[in-house]
């Protein structure tokens, strides 16, 4: 349990630090067009964190074995703590650090819709939905769900890669005496 907690909250903390770096660099404001792509660095953090966490579970085994199921569930436990940590991080970020993030995101999305040639009525309808969705609570719920889904996919793949069959006990060299 300690391994799952450590790696899960570690991933969430590292992603939060990256988000702060993006925010300080203006990637959540004036340079949002670049920030929409730099946020994928968090995926690299998640992949690396799950890899290291599942590998740590395998290393803790006496024979360094890891079944696919055990690796997958270890990855999902880590992902669950990461998802919970991402909700806390999102709420802190959206409520205290950058409360205007939702408005910035909404304006950016509206601009993209205009560039695609959508008419004003369609954009207005979309903005009503975006106004609701880009508030701290809905964005935190979305963060939780996407974190779990990303964790699920990564855990499935990493568990398959790190799978190590248990070693058979060594058979005695000669049969026991009769």
What does this 3D model show about the protein?
With 178 residues, the protein is mainly α. It has one domain (2-99, 136-162). It is elongated. It contains 7 helices and no strands. The relative contact order is 0.16. The longest helix is centred in the middle third of the chain and has 30 residues, at 68-97. Helix content is 76%, strand content 0%. It has helices at residues 2-24, 32-38, 41-60, 68-97, 101-115, 120-133, 136-162. Helix 3 (41-60) packs across helix 7.
Q: How many alpha or pi helices?
A: 7
Which parts are unreliable, with pLDDT below 50 for 5 consecutive residues or more? Answer: none
Order of helices and strands: HHHHHHH
Shape: elongated
What's the topology here?
Blueprint lengths: L1 H23 L7 H7 L2 H20 L7 H30 L3 H15 L4 H14 L2 H27 L16
Helix pairs in contact: 1-3, 1-4, 3-4, 3-7, 4-7, 5-6
């Amino acid at each position: 349990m300690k391994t799952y907690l450590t790696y899960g909250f570690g991933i969430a903390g590292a992603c939060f630090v990256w988000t702060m770096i993006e925010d300080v660099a203006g990637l959540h404001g004036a340079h949002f067009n670049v920030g929409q792509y730099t946020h994928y660095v968090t995926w690299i953090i998640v992949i690396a964190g799950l890899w290291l966490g599942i590998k740590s579970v395998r290393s803790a085994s006496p024979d360094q074995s890891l079944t696919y199921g055990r690796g997958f569930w270890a990855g999902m436990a880590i992902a669950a703590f990461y998802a919970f940590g991402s909700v806390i991080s999102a709420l802190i970020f959206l409520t205290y650090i950058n409360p205007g993030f939702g408005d910035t995101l909404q304006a950016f999305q509206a601009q993209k819709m205009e560039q695609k040639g959508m008419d004003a009525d369609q954009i207005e309808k979309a903005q009503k939905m975006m106004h609701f969705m880009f508030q701290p609570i809905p964005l935190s719920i979305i963060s939780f769900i996407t974190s779990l889904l990303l964790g699920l996919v990564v855990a499935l793949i990493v568990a398959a890669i790190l799978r190590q069959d248990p070693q058979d006990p060594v058979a005695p060299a000669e049969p026991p005496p009769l």
